[in-house]
RNA sequence: GCGCUCGUAGCUCAGUUGGAUAGAGCAACGGACUUCUAAUCCGUAGGCCGCGGGUUCGAAUCCUGCCGGGCGCGCCA
């Protein structure tokens, strides 16, 4: 399919140079030609402000230069209908019906591949997301991170990156001990010996801890009652981590999220990677000892203060293992590493970036997506959540109540750095306030129409169809929206902005519904009918591909 | 106190390398099915883009000072 932007750029560049030489103006270097999509109707399909930027070099008014460029445009290709000067000196370009028919035909040729592009150039990117401690079930906030990470990965893959998804398991450190002790205490409690193993301060109080203890009672009976607490602790801890991790995997899988790698923090210690990373930093002069602790020279980079790597008691900090982890990531050959974190960790970004630079990578080789909190509502009322008491709405609850499609859509609907109001009642209602159904309905409607067409013996064919018959305002607007999909994917991948896809989808569905209400398809004249069926097929493909990026079903009927 | 972040229509939000008259959805109001799915469409109304300065041909966008919300600031994770 033709690349409109490239074609336009070279057309404009040629005309601009001609205009310059005609006026005896010397251009310094290649002019950078900016193209954008005008927002308003009547301002063409593309616009360029090149005349305004050239005002100084030409010593002429922007409008004058714009006109000179327009007069020298080569319209031979046939894709460009006309160009006109507008406003303070914009040049508006109007694409031709020939271009529009090429778009539609191209989409059907590409099918599932439509929307993909090559800007990733096969580079390797890792997206690490969720990575919740295996100390309890995933809650709503994790759900948002899960979908944002998963959809971002989908988008990057569509943009030509080689993508790996990874879950980092924090299975080392104090929290694990605390988890084990919590289960241990509940175990003793269940067997009527709560006095022997008091519940730890700041222990995990959720009901699921009792469930885990009960499983051990069923499995091992009361044998652990007689053992010293230190002896049985690893048993409780191992069972808890294994069981909880299993639950997390199931929840994510049922949510449509699949990982390539589950990476254990503990393995970094076992393999000596933590020690090696520390040595690496010392050798490069980024680590030093003070007050009995080992410090990282974060201030060498762009962080406010130096950070502790090893406490004076010799124990590594979480930050230290994180450095080892990121070193491991880059050693695995990733060109770009993306971390998806909760927004409450934003203070951690400068030091992690500093660490990445100390490893010899550029700051841009790490991108952190900070996910703001989810405000859970039900029918406009805030749902009370308290981590302390162990009472919170789990991701599983949300999936069970709302369903996967609506949940996923709602979780990526907003930009990451915006708080998200998630109304459970709204998300599961087939309400007109619910954008998921609006978009899915568009897809189902097209399939319904195809079924009706088949029933009437009308075949969908790409042969001998004159797509230039699609000349109504609604058809042209729909085609332009279809044509924008690949660049939308490209932008979403560059900005790491998965929410863009939901906005695009809604817009596309809206253009389809408008067309559908304004025009008849099956009752049209045979030539027009064939053209419209082809247009709807292209729409169906684009809707399905975009929904696919979100991991949301594209139903054939509703 | 320092730092990050957000502040756009009544509500929820788009608007990212500075561009033309700031856009959607919902809510409100008024219309459209004997028809391929009305889970739809069409129209009306709704705005000191938090406030004040600055940068320039041009600012919701960049800089700066305030105001307000959220979050962070440990040899915790």
Notes on the structure:
- The chain is α/β, with parallel strands linked by helices.
- Among the domains are: 4-95, 2-Layer Sandwich (Gyrase A, domain 2), CATH 3.30.1360.70; 174-254, no CATH class; 433-550, Isoleucyl-tRNA Synthetase, Domain 1 (Orthogonal Bundle).
- It contains 21 helices and 15 strands.
- The chain has helices at 4-22, 50-53, 55-58, 62-71, 97-110, 140-158, 174-190, 207-220, 229-254, 265-270, 273-283, 318-331, 349-358, 395-402, 404-412, 424-428, 435-455, 473-483, 485-495, 499-518, 526-550; strands at 35-36, 46-48, 80-86, 90-95, 124-128, 162-169, 261-264, 287-290, 293-296, 307-310, 336-342, 366-371, 374-378, 381-382, 420-423.
- A hairpin with a 3-residue loop joins strand 3 and strand 4 (90-95).
- The longest helix is centred in the middle third of the chain and has 26 residues, at 229-254.
- It is flat, with a radius of gyration of 29 Å.
- The model has no long low-confidence stretch (mean pLDDT 90).
- The chain binds one RNA strand of 77 nucleotides through strand 9, strand 10, helix 17, helix 19 and helix 20.
Oligomer: single chain
Strand content of the residues, in percent?
Answer: 5-15%
Radius of gyration: 29 Å
Q: In whole angstroms, how far apart are the ends? A: 33 Å
The CATH architecture term of the domain at 433-550 is: Orthogonal Bundle
Instruction: Count every helix, treating DSSP H or I runs of 4 or more residues as helices.
Output: 21
**How is the largest sheet built, in terms of strand order?**
7-6-5-11-12
Structural class: alpha/beta
CATH class of the domain at 433-550: Mainly Alpha
Helix content: 40-55%
Mean pLDDT: 90
Low-confidence segments, given as residue ranges, are none
Q: How many strand segments?
A: 15
- What fold name goes in the CATH topology slot of the domain at 433-550? Isoleucyl-tRNA Synthetase, Domain 1
Within CATH, the superfamily of the domain at 433-550 carries the name Isoleucyl-tRNA Synthetase, Domain 1
Sheet having the most strands: 5 strands, parallel
Q: What coarse outline follows from CA principal-axis ratios?
A: flat
């Amino acid at each position: 399919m033709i690349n409109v932007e490239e074609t336009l750029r070279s057309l404009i560049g040629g005309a601009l140079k001609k205009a310059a030489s005609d006026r005896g103006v010397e251009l310094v270097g290649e002019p950078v030609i900016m193209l954008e999509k005008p927002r308003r109707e009547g301002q063409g399909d593309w616009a360029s402000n090149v005349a305004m930027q050239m005002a100084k070099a030409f010593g002429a008014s922007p409008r004058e230069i714009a006109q000179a460029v327009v007069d020298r445009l080569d319209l031979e290709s046939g894709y460009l209908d006309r160009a006109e000067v507008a406003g303070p000196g914009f040049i508006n370009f109007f694409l031709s019906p020939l271009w529009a028919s090429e778009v539609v035909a191209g989409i059907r040729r590409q099918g599932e591949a439509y929307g993909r592009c090559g800007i990733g150039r096969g580079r390797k990117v890792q997206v690490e997301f969720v990575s919740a401690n295996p100390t309890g079930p995933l809650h709503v906030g994790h759900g948002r991170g899960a979908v944002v990470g998963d959809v971002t990965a989908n988008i990057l893959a569509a943009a030509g990156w080689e993508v790996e998804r990874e879950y980092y398991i924090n299975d080392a450190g104090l929290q694990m001990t605390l988890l084990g002790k919590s289960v241990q205490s509940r175990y003793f409690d269940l067997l009527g010996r709560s006095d022997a193993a008091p519940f730890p301060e700041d222990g995990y109080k959720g009901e699921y801890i009792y469930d885990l203890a009960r499983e051990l009672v069923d499995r091992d009976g009361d044998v652990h009652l007689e053992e010293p607490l230190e002896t049985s602790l690893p048993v409780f801890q191992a069972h808890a981590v294994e069981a909880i991790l299993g639950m997390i995997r199931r929840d994510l899988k049922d949510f449509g999220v699949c990982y390539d790698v589950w990476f254990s923090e503990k393995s970094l210690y076992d393999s000596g990677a933590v020690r090696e990373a520390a040595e690496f930093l010392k050798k490069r002069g980024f680590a030093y000892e003070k007050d009995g602790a080992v410090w990282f020279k974060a201030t060498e980079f762009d962080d406010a203060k130096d950070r502790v790597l090893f406490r004076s008691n010799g124990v590594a900090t979480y930050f230290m293992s994180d450095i080892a982890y990121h070193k491991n990531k880059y050693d695995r050959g990733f060109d770009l590493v993306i971390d998806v974190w909760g927004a409450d960790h934003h203070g951690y970004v400068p030091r992690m970036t500093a660490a990445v630079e100390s490893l010899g990578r550029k700051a841009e080789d790490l991108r952190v997506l900070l996910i703001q909190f989810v405000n859970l509502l039900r029918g406009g009322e805030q749902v009370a959540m308290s981590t302390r008491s162990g009472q919170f709405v789990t991701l599983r609850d949300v999936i069970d109540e709302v369903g996967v499609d609506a949940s996923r859509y709602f979780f990526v609907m907003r930009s990451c750095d915006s708080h998200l109001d998630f109304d459970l009642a709204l998300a599961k209602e087939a309400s007109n306030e619910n954008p998921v159904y609006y978009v899915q309905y568009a897809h189902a409607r097209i399939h319904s129409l195809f079924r009706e067409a088949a029933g009437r013996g009308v075949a969908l064919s790409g042969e001998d169809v004159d797509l230039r018959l699609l000349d109504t305002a609604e058809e042209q607007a729909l085609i332009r929206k279809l044509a924008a999909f690949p660049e939308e994917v490209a932008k979403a991948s560059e900005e790491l902005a998965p929410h863009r896809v939901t906005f695009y989808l809604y817009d596309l569905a809206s253009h389809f519904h408008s067309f559908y209400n304004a025009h008849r398809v099956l009752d049209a004249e045979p030539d027009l009918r064939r053209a419209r069926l082809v247009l709807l097929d292209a729409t169906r493909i684009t809707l399905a591909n975009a929904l696919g990026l979100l991991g949301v079903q594209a139903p054939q009927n509703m």
